[in-house]
Amino acid sequence: MLRQTTYLTKRYGVPEGWTLPVYERDGGYQQAKRALSMPREALVEEMKAANIRGRGGAGFPMGVKWSFMPWPPKPEKPHYLVINADEGEPGTFKDRTIMELDPHAVVEGCIIGCFGIGAHAAYIYVRDELHLSKARLWGAIKEAREKGYLGAKPFGIDYPVEVYVHTGAGAYICGEETSLLNSLEGKRGEPRLKPPFPAQAGAFGMPTTVNNLETIAAVPVALAMGGDAFSKLSDLHDQKDGGCRLYGVSGHVNKPGVFEACVGLTLRELIYDLGGGVKGGELLGVIPGGSSCPILRPDETVNAPDPKSPLHRWHGKNVLDVPMGVETYRALGTMLGTCCAIVLNKNTDIVLAMHNLMRFYRHESCGQCTPCREGSAWLFRILDRMVHGEATMEELDRLHEIADNIMGNTICAFGEGTAMPALGFLRKYRKEFEEHVRTKGKSGTGRLAL
Amino acid sequence: MATIKIDGREIPFEQGDTIIKAAHRAGIDIPHYCWHPGLSVAANCRMCLVEVAPPPGRPAMQLDILRWDPEKKDYVPARKPKLVPACQQACAPGMEVLSEGSDHVEEARGAVQELLLLNHPVDCPICDQAGECRLQDYWLEHQGTGKRMQQEVVHKPKAVDFGPTIVYDAERCIVCTRCVRFTAEVAKDPVLSVRERGNLNEIVVSPGRELDHDYTLMTEHVCPVGALTSKDFRFKARVWFLRSARTVCQGCATGCNAYLDYDPRTNVPHRHRPRDNEEVNKYWMCDEGMLSYKRAVEGRLGTALVGGEDASLEEALAAAKDQLAGLKDDPGRVAVVLSAQHSNEDNHALLTLARTFIGAKDLYVSGRPLGRGDKILMSEDKNPNTLGVMQLAGAPAPKPIASLFDAIKAGKYSFVIALGAEIEVDAKDAESALSKLKGVVTIAAHDGPLARAAHVALPATAWAEQDGTYVNRQGLAQKSERALKARGDARPGWELVAKLGKELGYAMTYKTLADVRRAMTPEAPAASRDADRAAKPEVSA
Ligand SMILES: Cc1cc2nc3c(=O)[nH]c(=O)nc-3n(C[C@H](O)[C@H](O)[C@H](O)COP(=O)(O)O)c2cc1C
Ligand code: SF4
Ligand code: SF4
Ligand code: SF4
Ligand code: FES
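Predict the joint structure of the above. Result:
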């Protein structure tokens, strides 16, 4: 159900909304101050109750992740909070708006987060191209430090906290959390083997929590409201998917952009009510949450006769009418991902669309492990031939096989992030692909943009 | 002891073992490229994927995939279990692992294999690795199909000069990072790294550097494919023509276990490479040791010398008898020089001649001078058998060769009988001192100051041409096998000693190596153990 909120976007569009005075006028930093005098367990419990599912793509419950940190912290093993603001997923552009328009929410979230996980330092890893984001974060950190909200005694409380901005160098794979940690340490940005998980050995080998930037920015709001109340904003509170979040919509819609709403919004609402409807014709498909999420067709219906399925309530309904949630989308065979949808209208050449995405994955694979390094490149090669009208039916039949063998066989989730959407395109648009191959590309519109 | 099951076979594991490690120890081969027992785990090649049954009562983790149904002419959704790399997954008691017993595993390995060869040049006919290449072996075992990608492969730098010893071919490289990890973790010189990403990845040497530390040839050795080649070995031999002897490196007192690979048709040695031994060299050798195989051929004493002129063995022995005439009158005027370069067997024979028959009291020991050592493998003592000589001789310990020349200058000796070619003191001094003596007989495999100053030099076999026992710095007595046929007139050192003894009229009866070894055993030092028993099975990782 569409319920727009302004908890996270209150200062969007407010003059100087990114500065400390405006933030404090809205009650800013009160929650950080409060958190620092709470017992740690109470804070973590509050966060668990808030049911903030990680906004970086995997949807892991944030409070639970915090509780994984070893406790109490050992003096020789300082804890770190690392904020993932790499935002490299194609079609995703929500974290950037927070950094640009409400950076103090990030800083306040970091203070609370540090306390929650026993850290005294937070690193915000920002994609280097985001110049305004970096400037606004630096500005906010400076203001907060001058006010004494950061440093040795934030708000006069004896719990030192520092927040640093670290810039990446524009590699998608550095958004994967362990790759990010390597990059943060000055190493080659490629994923680490797990275990050990970051909570055991993360940044500089120390216990670390990695949170997405939107995840941490939601913390002050959730704390102010109370965890349970925050969670209940959501239609999917019973699925432990709580609160409100940012939704992005781009591609062939009349009003692309970032919107805030309670969890439980449907794709139809996102596209038609918030995004202003499909631009230039009918809907061909929607990539729901960033390019790694398998595409949905507008003519799909939910098949969930099992009452235990998180989708059962929507059995028989159109997929566009299912609330966008971590569990619901997983059950649909796709993913909620970053909650930023890419809309394709009927004029889109689906082969070109898949070609475009596979080019991205081929280019961004770190190349560490064989299935992803070679498989992503082979997928792209075949699609490239297809786009040029050169591919054979046999090559089309090879695509799913390559993807099948990337799936699950790689070091990091990049592999699935490549294979899942590839399989999605094939399964749902096989007829179009066949037609494309048969007609040597003439059946396609040859267009991605309008 | 806790166990796991691999394809139904129960094997024990030790605390901290990964599946592949436990399997390796039990002699079960799980296919792998990037894993190496002496390096950290990278788990990047994905060749070792196995299926692990979930703990009882828990569902297996399944992944959604697609299969093509030719009947329906459409995809059908399917599921497969999540496979895990055997090189990364730790063993847990009772764990059930399917390796060859799982179709999913076979499919995954076949796919990895196909992907590794996708952009590979497959230039096996001109590749030094051919015949011992995992890409070839696993193609046969796990793929067996032709290349399905018909387009031009990705091209990358070829014949890149990495330094004085190694050449790199990025097209053949499978980016397993074994070489990178070796240089960082074992050689402690992190001079290699990965550049670029995706399928453009390649290995590079740090800017401003060359691959030029003491262990560069090991990078070639750990490379599972033909991407790194050794300049020394490049284009010289096809490995299937080579035979291997289990040798002990002669480069220093560490006594690394090695294979000497040689061509039996031409009697030419081609390379020295490590033989795994956890107690001594683990999986490694240094460059100096790996290249030291050349001494089996280079600088050899091919024939006997009498007064510096070539002579037959018979002539030389007769000349030796002449030279040493009068030796029996005063054994006190005889100095005997043992050699830390020679085996226990050779030294034992000479000791027997000296003590039992001649009754000589004064023993010296010669060898190569001290060199550079390190904390990895290399010993400063550049002789393979210093400890062996000392143990055999017992008390009083043989004196260093420098003191021999002082004693000669002081007129103490008339005769010297010496084993070995090399000495650790100035060669000119040595020659001028020795030239003053009445009789100097040397038994040596190589030309050198001791041979040159001798009135008679007898040509001994090099270590590669005879079986021998060497005691390394840890006190391990290790056997080195014969690889080559003796060059020229060379005979084993112990045999020449025996012949000389006979010529001098003593009852030296050694006819075979076994005779010598039998004679040695009762007095063999307690510390010496047969390290061969500790040597690992010959499955190279
Ligand atoms: C290839 C890849 C790229 C990723 N990129 C991002 C990213 O840009 N931003 C992000 O927050 N998470 C990204 N993630 C997810 C992170 O690994 C991690 O799950 C997340 O930062 C955890 O934060 P959260 O629990 O708050 O979502 C990526 C994951 C993968 C596999
Ligand atoms: S799956 Fe891809 S991105 Fe991830 S480690 Fe492997 S090669 Fe790198
Ligand atoms: S690396 Fe192996 S497969 Fe490649 S060319 Fe050399 S021998 Fe052939
Ligand atoms: S050069 Fe050889 S050892 Fe090094 S990464 Fe390539 S294949 Fe592996
Ligand atoms: S051996 Fe390479 S992944 Fe295990």
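Chain B touches chain A at residues 41-47, 49, 63-68, 74-75, 77, 80, 82-83, 88, 107-108, 111-112, 115-116, 118-119, 148-149, 151, 154, 174-175, 193-194, 196-201 (CB under 8 Å).
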